[in-house]
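Minutes, project huddle
Topic: does the predicted pose make sense with thiamine diphosphate bound?
PN asked that the exact inputs be recorded in the minutes so nobody has to dig through chat later. Recorded below.
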Amino acid sequence: MTVEGTAQRKSTRAGSKRTAAKKASPTKKATEAKAGSRPDQAEQDQLVQLLTPEGKRVEHPEYAIDLSPEELRGLYRDMVLTRRFDAEATTLQRQGELGLWASLLGQEAAQIGSGRALRDDDYVFPTYREHGVAWCRGVDPTNLLGMFRGVNHGGWDPNSNNFHLYTIVIGSQTLHATGYAMGVQKDGADSAVIAYFGDGASSQGDVAESFTFSAVYNAPVVFFCQNNQWAISEPTERQTRVPLYQRARGYGFPGVRVDGNDVLACLAVTKAALERARTGQGPMLVEAFTYRMGAHTTSDDPTKYRADEETLAWEAKDPILRLRTYLESEGFVDEAYLAGIDQESEALGKRVRDAVRAMPDPDSMAIFENVYADGHALVDEERAQFAAYQASFADAEAIAEGN
Ligand SMILES: Cc1ncc(C[n+]2csc(CCOP(=O)(O)OP(=O)(O)O)c2C)c(N)n1
Ligand SMILES: [Mg+2]
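Predicted holo structure (tokens), as shared on screen:
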């Protein structure tokens, strides 16, 4: 945790309704959560950072990166376009075009930094929030929206971009990634696998099992935890008493905490972790310390459980702003370049809106397809039942029309 992170959490949460209620009547749960939940100064110093919130370039003894101005501009463009896509999707949900949306607002650096560290032959297992990683893998952003509109069960072929389908069952993809990585190892390939998951998911048994298996089999997998401080309305201190990256030690592999709002640090650390995996050194846990700036999903209202001051404090650490400040201070971008990115954002927004509105409704019987590779008696039975149910409406319509 950063120094600011701790100070901010203490000051802002002290003012929240939740904490105020507990102050009036301290419960056992509150006392338990407090004990051991704050990392000490030495642990805060462990945070890998290469670009400060003020946009100053700093060095780290273990993780170095040397990028050309063009590469730096590329990271900026990735983050701006991803944010724009995400904002467009949120708006489309508000307009009734999507059933739900899980915004990545605030997590652009964690996703673009780690996503750009990957090689084409690496394989990604995402959650439901990895829109920036999908962008880096070359998945067309409009394909991400079908599932959220309810017109398909995924929207892309995972093997086209080595980017698995979004996974909603919390933590389960870490097991898929571990198994896949063990397969890569058996193939004798030198590609790596990366599993994304959240701070809340870290409490799932699936994650513990995947840590155990990947460690003992020395599987080439990177566990990339975006600690965005919240699992819906549950804060990180309800998940763990030690900084999450330290969990790895107990399983026998290294863990590192990186400033998740620093795209350069996320890139450098993920590259190093992938390299370890490729060269037979086994798994590694990367904890990207970041913040979910928006709601959990469009169905959530975070004002019910967290203080505005907390969100404001994290706004000052915005991942895009800090890179832009750095690029401007170095003279790596000019107004024409930035205006060009704005134009690209507008065009992307329009493309996304048009594509979503043009998505055809699926045939309602299509839900029974692809459940099993071959036929299955139960699915056949359910298909027949559903067909009869739908036909009952046709009968009712016929009666109403007097036929
Ligand atoms: C196995 C399982 N349990 C519960 C849920 C409901 N659920 C959906 S998102 C979520 C919180 C996940 O938080 P975190 O892992 O921190 O990821 P974030 O949403 O913050 O990116 C929960 C509990 C689920 N989808 N799957
Ligand atoms: Mg979370």
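Observations noted during the meeting:
- The CA atoms of residues 115 and 133 lie 5 Å apart.
- The longest helix spans residues 69-94.
No decisions taken; revisit at the next huddle.
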